[in-house]
């Protein structure tokens, strides 16, 4: 792998997979550039910055370390987007004449995440009951009720966003090499592309998932879905 492509908490990464979904929270399982007798600068529960950079193009993510330790003589870390608390259980709650934005924000804050309310969440809910469930389940239930044009995900800033999906064309699409694509599975592979995000459009298709693969052959694998604006 080319030096300096990825770092987590200021430490270089020598291998791993960083997955960013359109619905949900990004996760990264990474092998750190540390000798067995060295110690990482961060521990489980710490906020860490994940940086991807290649040829002057960079993306930076606010994430949280969930697990770090040695495995088969190598230091590995599992990090997730935001505060890493979407699996936290929420107590039941009942709403009367509340906006979708309030329901979303409450779930985030009660779990310890920071919400960002997007467009379209001013819809009034006459009644809404949230049973005892994990934060991510509460967000997904609300999204399904709102409809297929709504999404929720962790942003690079670490905030959780929910709102109407309003895709924009990926600005550097002309620079991408489309030679390794598989139309049958709607999967495309490019040279590592740090700034490609779910919610972008590529040739009219919606980017559903981005997987940055680090190792001997760094690359970005993309899952595409239909979009009719």
Number of alpha- plus pi-helical segments: 2
Shape: flat
The topology string of helices and strands comes to: EEEEEEEEHEEEHEEEEEEEE
Structural class by SSE content: mainly beta
The number of domains is 3
Uncertain spans, ≥5 residues at pLDDT below 50? none
Please report which band the strand proportion falls in: under 5%, 5-15%, 15-25%, 25-35%, 35-45% or over 45%.
over 45%
What share of residues is helical?
10-25%
* E-strand count: 19
Q: Provide the gyration radius in Å.
A: 19 Å
Mean pLDDT: 92
Instruction: Report the sheet with the most strands, covering strand number, pairing sense and barrel closure.
Output: 6 strands, antiparallel, barrel
Q: Distance N terminus to C terminus?
A: 38 Å
- Enumerate the strands of the largest sheet in spatial order, edge to edge or round the barrel: 1-2-3-6-5-4
Provide structural commentary.
- This protein is mostly beta strands.
- The protein has three domains: 6-81; 89-164, Phage tail protein beta-alpha-beta fold; 168-225.
- Helices cover 10% and strands 49% of the residues.
- It has two helices and 19 strands.
- The protein has helices at 100-111, 135-146; strands at 6-8, 11-21, 27-32, 47-54, 57-71, 74-81, 89-90, 93-99, 115-117, 124-130, 133-134, 150-154, 160-164, 168-169, 180-182, 187-191, 200-202, 205-214, 219-225.
- The strands form four sheets. The chain has a six-stranded antiparallel β-barrel with strand order 1-2-3-6-5-4. A three-stranded mixed beta sheet has the order 9-13-12, covered by helices on one side.
- β15 and β16 form a beta hairpin.
- The radius of gyration is 19 Å and the shape is flat.
- The termini are far apart.
- The model has no long low-confidence stretch (mean pLDDT 92).
């Amino acid at each position: 792998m080319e030096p300096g492509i990825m770092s987590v908490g200021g430490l270089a990464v020598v291998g791993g997979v960083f997955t960013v979904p359109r619905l949900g929270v990004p996760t990264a399982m990474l092998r750190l550039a540390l000798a067995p007798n060295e110690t990482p600068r961060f521990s489980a529960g710490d906020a860490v910055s994940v940086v991807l950079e290649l040829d002057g193009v960079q993306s930076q993510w606010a994430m949280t370390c969930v697990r770090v330790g040695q495995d088969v003589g190598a230091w590995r870390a599992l990090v997730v987007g935001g505060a890493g608390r979407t699996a936290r259980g929420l107590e039941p709650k009942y709403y009367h004449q509340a906006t979708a934005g309030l329901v979303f924000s409450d779930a985030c804050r009660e779990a310890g995440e920071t919400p960002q309310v997007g467009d379209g969440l001013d819809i009034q809910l006459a009644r809404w009951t949230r049973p005892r469930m994990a934060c991510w389940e509460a967000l997904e239930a609300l999204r399904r009720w709102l409809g297929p044009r709504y999404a929720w995900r962790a942003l690079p800033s670490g905030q959780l966003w929910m709102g109407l999906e309003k895709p924009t064309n990926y600005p550097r699409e002309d620079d991408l090499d489309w030679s390794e694509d598989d139309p049958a599975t709607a999967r495309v592979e490019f040279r590592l592309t740090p700034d490609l995000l779910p919610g972008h459009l590529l040739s009219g298709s919606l980017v559903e998932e981005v997987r940055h693969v680090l190792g001997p052959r760094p690359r970005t694998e993309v899952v595409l879905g239909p979009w009719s604006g």
